[in-house]
């Protein structure tokens, strides 16, 4: 495989990653919302495990395509979720503020991978703000 073929192969992997990661990221946002709304210990445990599984999967996939920023942010989100205390109040409010900020950063990092594609291939694709907003909902 020559260098040009290798570059095209890497490009196709990155493109496939971004296409498949977008709905996965939307589901991760939904998991974070479930985590935020969880009131009982069991509901919190279930929501935390689902969030952890999904963010780990995203991180592993990012590693496979050498998307370092997405991988690093996935690890940060995973660490935040793992360290989450089940206590209500101001501490929990601050925690979710920090978690949502990292999730926004993760969404933006994923979108940044798409901006590296040729402009002719981006026609009809959502803008960065549309993607962030759709994931946050």
Question: Could you name the CATH class?
Answer: Mainly Alpha
Pattern of helices and strands: HHHHH
Number of H- or I-type helical stretches? 5
Q: What would you say the CATH architecture is?
A: Up-down Bundle
CATH topology name: Four Helix Bundle (Hemerythrin (Met), subunit A)
End-to-end gap: 43 Å
Mean pLDDT: 83
Approximately how much helix is present in the residues?
Answer: over 70%
Indicate how many domains the architecture comprises. Answer: 1
How would you classify the helix and strand content by structural class? mainly alpha
Low-pLDDT runs: 117-123
- Compute the gyration radius: what is it? 16 Å
What's the β-strand tally? 0
Q: Major sheet, described briefly?
A: none
Q: How large a portion of the residues is in β-strands, by DSSP E?
A: under 5%
Anisotropy-based shape? elongated
